[in-house]
Amino acid sequence: MHIGLIGLGKMGNNMRTRLREAGVEVTGFDRNPDVTDVPTVEALVQALPAPRTVWVMVPAGQITDSVIEELNGHLEAGDLVIDGGNSRFTEDFKHAALLAEKGIDYIDAGVSGGVWGVENGYGLMVGGSAEQVERVMPVFDALRPEGPREEGFVHVGEVGAGHYAKMVHNGIEYAMMQAYAEGYELLEKRSDLIKNVPGTFEAWQRGTVVRSWLLELLVRALKEDPTLAKIEGYVEDSGEGRWTIEEAIDNAVPVPTIAASIFARFVSRQDDSPAMKAVAALRNQFGGHAVKSND
């Protein structure tokens, strides 16, 4: 199978590597000449056999809009566009409608795995027609983790469902990170009693009910910097957490834990707290997100 991939940043470049290692032919485009395979989006489209499949992996918002509009000008009926970025699910309806005017199909794919996905595989949440999802299943199988398909891939529903599921996933992620971070701060505050904070988290990795990959990443961060002294407790939010809360309000679903985790990030921009140092360290570990250094 041969697909196009637009956007070769941290995740896109790693996805290209994983796909190629699985035998999927990939032609990639990026504005960075050091990583791109072709000079333009038009050249990418011309390099693909019909019916074409193009995976878009660029930042959500105006950049995604512009890429899809450009693809709409080059693709033909029967081609397929997959948006694997973190677009808001409501944008999927707009993009699908635009492409449908020319008979171009559309899939939205929520992708989780961060910078570690190239080794471990990516969790995939997909929205679109069953026919189109099945058409590109070799791509999804190459990207997902090894093991049973249902443990790393889900066809959630029609267009918009994939990004909706990813939005809720990220809201949960916000809350989980905040819980670990608050526990870290409490342990760190009682240094008179707790003499080994990093070791405490490390011991929780086996046999405890709070074990998880996020916990493993926090342990990794503490091994690199046991007191997180090099990290400023300033944490950005990428949008999905806010969207989750807005959806919860619209549907009268109480999400106090997720909401509190968002507000904690706002507090981090005013106060350099140990808990927010831990959240910043976690985001850096799983997603390669930049941190503010105290150096």
Automatic annotation (TrEMBL):
Residues 162-290 form the 6-phosphogluconate dehydrogenase C-terminal domain. Gene3D superfamilies: N-(1-d-carboxylethyl)-l-norvaline Dehydrogenase, domain 2, NAD(P)-binding Rossmann-like Domain. Keywords: Gluconate utilization, Oxidoreductase. InterPro entries: 6-PGluconate_DH-like_C_sf, 6DGDH_YqeC, 6PGD_dom2, 6PGDH_C, 6PGDH_NADP-bd, 6PGdom_BS, NAD(P)-bd_dom_sf, Pgluconate_DH. It holds the Pfam family 6PGD. It comes from the Bacteria. One of its GO terms (molecular function) is NADP binding. The keyword Oxidoreductase applies. The keyword Oxidoreductase applies. GO terms for biological process: D-gluconate metabolic process; pentose-phosphate shunt. SUPFAM superfamilies: 6-phosphogluconate dehydrogenase C-terminal domain-like (SSF48179), NAD(P)-binding Rossmann-fold domains (SSF51735). Belongs to the 6-phosphogluconate dehydrogenase family. This is 6-phosphogluconate dehydrogenase (Decarboxylating).
